[in-house]
Design goal:
alpha+beta, 26% strand, flat, 5-stranded mixed sheet, hypothetical protein PF0899 fold, 18 strands, 333 residues, 3-stranded mixed sheet, single chain, Major capsid protein gp5 fold
Length: 333
């Protein structure tokens, strides 16, 4: 995870901002006043600040936990070209004197991927805001940069699974993977029925790629309700009574089972369940998530005599599926 993080965020920009923020706050701390966000002097006899900061919570982002490699190739360029090669041809019998030889060549496929530049800035903040935050033991610069990273994570989670930002598609709605409709319903199925449905689904994907390790699914991501059902529905095995999730992990050693709310059913009343279970290979020969420029949070700058602002940007090309057989989708479980 630490290695992946260096590909998500430009660490130099964060360190520079931390130093600058400390310096600014240190200067402001000289003769600091106890101010609230509205600029009113707080009466410490009547008001006490709860040190816990309540933050709106969201479902966990999981795109950076799938194991798919994050590529920073591209930098400031607007287009990334890629090449995929395949060895073709054969050896031929060499009869003495006839000069007969086989021909070996490389078949190449190339594609161009567009890069989208994205940027954001904070609402302007004042010296009074910095002073008030410091008096309340809340580092405002840290709070704002943390908010930027959270938004960045949510946007990339959406892009990885569903696309949209780059104008393309993601893991769950691309037209490259084979797709099948589930024969079982997770809510009403027995443990054995659930185990059979998912194990056959994984096996079908492995069969499609002829057990080529680089393309065999090693991750399966599913709706949160299906995942929760697998973790509390039991099944009898030779080793005794275990949950369906454990039974699947025993049967498919090395396959990571995880969930994302992005997989959940979004159909309207009366429409078929459109939730998605996706089994896929996470190696770079199968797919790559292209983030040519990681999140860069720039040093705060002064808008006016009393106002400051922080800007951030990154460049995105989205999920690049290299091998169409490396994933498979199960709809409506």
């Amino acid at each position: 995870m630490a290695q992946q993080l260096t590909k998500l965020v430009d660490n130099k920009s964060i360190k520079a901002l931390a130093v600058q923020g400390t310096t600014v706050l240190a200067e402001l701390n000289k003769g600091i006043r106890a101010m609230d966000a509205g600029g009113l002097l707080l009466s410490r006899h009547n008001i006490i600040l709860d040190p816990y900061i309540f933050r709106q919570q969201y479902p966990d982002v999981t795109w950076d936990m799938t194991g798919v490699e994050i590529s920073n190739i591209g930098g400031i360029h607007n287009t990334i070209d890629k090449i995929k090669t395949e060895a073709t041809g054969s050896f031929a019998k060499n009869r003495q004197g006839d000069g007969n030889t086989g021909i070996i060549s490389l078949k190449a496929e190339n594609a161009s991927i567009s890069v989208v530049a994205l940027n954001a800035k904070t609402e302007p903040f004042t010296k009074d805001d910095l002073e008030a935050a410091a008096a309340s033991n809340r580092p405002l610069v840290t709070e704002l940069t943390t908010a930027m990273f959270r938004i960045f994570q949510r946007e990339n989670d959406q892009e990885f699974y569903r696309g949209t930002t780059t104008g393309g598609t993601g893991l769950l709605n691309n037209g490259l993977f084979k797709s099948a409709t589930a024969s079982a319903d997770a809510k009403t199925s027995t443990g054995l029925e659930l185990f059979t449905e998912i194990s056959e689904f994984i096996t079908d994907q492995w069969n499609d790629v002829l057990n080529v390790n680089s393309y065999k699914a090693n991750v399966i991501v599913m709706p949160t309700d299906v995942f929760n059902t697998l973790t509390h529905t039991h099944i009898n095995t030779a080793g005794g009574l275990v949950t369906v999730k454990v039974a699947l992990e025993m049967a498919f050693a090395g396959v990571k089972i995880m969930s994302s709310f992005r997989c959940n059913d979004t159909s309207k009343a009366g429409q078929p369940n459109n939730s998605v279970v996706c089994a896929f290979a996470s190696g770079k020969d199968a797919m790559v998530y292209r983030l040519p420029k990681p999140l860069t949070i720039h040093a705060q700058f002064q808008l006016s005599a009393t106002q400051f602002q922080i800007e951030a940007d990154y460049r995105l090309a989205g999920l690049d599926i290299v091998e169409s057989l490396s994933g498979r989708k199960l709809i409506g479980l």
